[in-house]
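C-alpha cells please, single chain.
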Amino acid sequence: MPVVSPISRDKSGNIYNVNADLAASEIAKALHAGHLVFISDVAGVLVNGAVVRSIKTTDIEGLIADGHIKGGMIPKVRGARSRLKTEWHRCISAAGTEKKPLGKS
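Here you go.
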C-alpha cells in the first residue's frame, strides 16, 4: 500500500507542503486502485458527535453547508466523490490515532 507524505522535495532539494489528500487521490487514479484509504487525526465525518459510517455522494454538499464536513475533511470527501462516480468502489477515512484503525472501517 503506497503511503503519501505531505512533505515533498523537488530535484534541487526544495521542500514543499503538498496536499497529501489530493496527491493520494491522483496516485490511486494512476494505479487504477479500486479503493482509497485516508488515515487522519479524525475517524471521519462527525454528525452530532458520532462518526457517520456511510455518506451518499448526493449528501456531501449539504453536510458541508451544515458545518458537519469542515476543514481538511472537505477536500477528502470532494475528491472521493469525484472518483467514486467513475473509478473507486470504496473510500475509507480512519483515525490513525486508534489501534487498528482499518479494522473499524
